[in-house]
Amino acid sequence: MEVSPTEICYQGSKYPHKLGASVLDTLLENGVEIPYSCRAGVCQSCVMRCDTGELPANCQTGLKDTLCSQGYFLACQCKPEEKLSVTLPNDLGMFGHATVVEKTLLSANICGLKLLSFLPLDYHAGQFINLRNAEGCIRSYSLASLPAQQEYLELHIRRHPDGEMSSWLFDEIQPGDLLDLQGPNGQCFYISDNPEQTLLLIGTGTGLAPLLGIVRDALYSGHTGPIYLYHGSGSLEGLYHQEILEQLAKRHENFSYQQCLSAGIGKQPVPLEGLLEKWPGRADEIAFERHIDLNNTQIYLCGAPAMVKAAQRRAFLAGAELALIHADPFLTRAD
Q1: CB-based contacts of 26: which residues, under 8 Å, 6+ apart?
Q2: How far is CA 53 from the centre of its chain?
Q3: β 198-204/297-303 pair status
Q4: 203 & 324 share domain
Q5: What is the pLDDT of residues 243-255, one digit of tens each?
Q6: Does the N-terminal peptide bond of residue 269 adopt cis geometry, omega within 30 degrees of 0?
Q7: Looking at the 3D structure of the chain, how many domains does it have?
Q8: How many CA atoms lie within 13 A of 31 on its CB side?
Q9: How far is it, in rounded angstroms, from Cα 255 to Cα 89?
Q10: What is the CATH number of the domain that holds 252?
Q11: CA angle at 72 for the pair 70 and 78, rounded to the nearest 5°
């Protein structure tokens, strides 16, 4: 990568910048630690503020207009062609506070958190918020709650091996504790302009959280078209909230729900006899086998990035319009 005459100024130091590199790349290569996670411009963990210099196009995509006007940008997406002076944002307009009101174990490696925000949060079910701990670690979690019916924010947290944030939330956070939060963010939510349209939702792991929120929103809004939810996991412990979803299916004739088990992938041994009839395989494969023509179908894909990417392509080839495919891949630093 060619070295450009530009530089990034941060906290009184100047760092040489390479053409085509992002601000995040430059700072990390020089040993400067700033918050970041997905590096894809989705989670907004790496938001910074530009004090001097001209920001390139597209590095403010997804940020609120009020933040853009103050010079906030996504460090992972900002590839400047001239000198920039940048700082970490202050909390004004970025982070608020919430109290943990309930913590429950949803499965062996998934816990549920219910938070009460100090200030009203204007959000759509299915969007995500960022949580921050005392060490400055920031991670994104999708909202399963429905603002019209629930005063609290509902999150599903999967414990990741050596995960700094998930381990903290699992092991240390308790009801009554305070959390920093930012958001809402994301475009994966129910759109009510066509209530007779078919909705197809496919998720893996805690990708169920935003999908549950979207289903709740659609049913609450009086959606009359068929709603199909496929939730998959590589192990039995990753399949959770079955009773809640089955109750929804009983109360609403237009909603159907299918758990899907990719046998042999998880650590837990799975007896196959009679099981795959109930849990028949990979969620995306089963969904596309059952739904061949996706014309005029609103599609929501949440969870493992590989599944989301493959399902996006398959949905498009099956006739779905790109504008009707909503994707929320759960990207991590490793991804």
Answers
A1: 8, 15, 16, 17, 18
A2: 31
A3: parallel
A4: yes
A5: 999 999 999 999 9
A6: no
A7: 3
A8: 1
A9: 43
A10: 3.40.50.80
A11: 140
- Give per-residue pLDDT as tens, 302-331: 998 999 999 999 999 988 999 999 988 876
The answer to pTM > 0.70 is yes
Burial (CB count within 10 angstroms: exposed 0-12, middle 13-18, buried 19+), residue 116:
middle
Q: Residue 209 corresponds to which amino acid?
A: A
Ramachandran area for residue 239 (φ above 0: left; ψ -120 to 50: alpha; else beta): beta
Does 216 have pLDDT greater than 90?
A: yes
Question: What's residue 222's pLDDT?
Answer: 96
| Cβ-proximal residues to 23 (8 Å cutoff; 6+ apart), any chain | 8, 17, 48, 73, 75, 76, 78, 79, 80, 84, 86
Give Cβ neighbours of residue 123 (< 8 Å, ≥ 6 apart). Answer: 129, 143, 147, 183, 184
88: phi then psi, degrees, rounded to nearest 5? -75, 145
What are the φ/ψ torsions at residue 92 (nearest 5 degrees)? -60, 120
Residue that the structure tokens 């969870």 belong to: 303
Instruction: Locate 276 and state its tokens.
Output: 């795959």
Residues 175 and 203 grouped into a single domain: no
When pLDDT is averaged across residues 9-24 and rounded to a whole number, the result is: 90
Query: What are the two backbone dihedrals, phi and then psi, of residue 209, each rounded to the nearest 5 degrees?
Result: -55, -60
**What residues contact 32, with CB distance under 8 A and at least 6 apart?**
10, 11, 15
> Is the torsion defined by CA of 144, 147, 149, 151 positive or negative?
positive
State the residue range of the domain holding 205. 198-329
Indicate whether 302 belongs to any domain. Answer: yes
> Is beta strand 325-329 parallel, antiparallel or unpaired with respect to 297-303?
parallel
User: Which of 185, 211, 231 is the endpoint of a domain?
Assistant: 185
For residue 64, give Cα distances in angstroms to 74, 148, 239, 245.
12, 22, 35, 33
Six-digit token string for 204:
């893996």
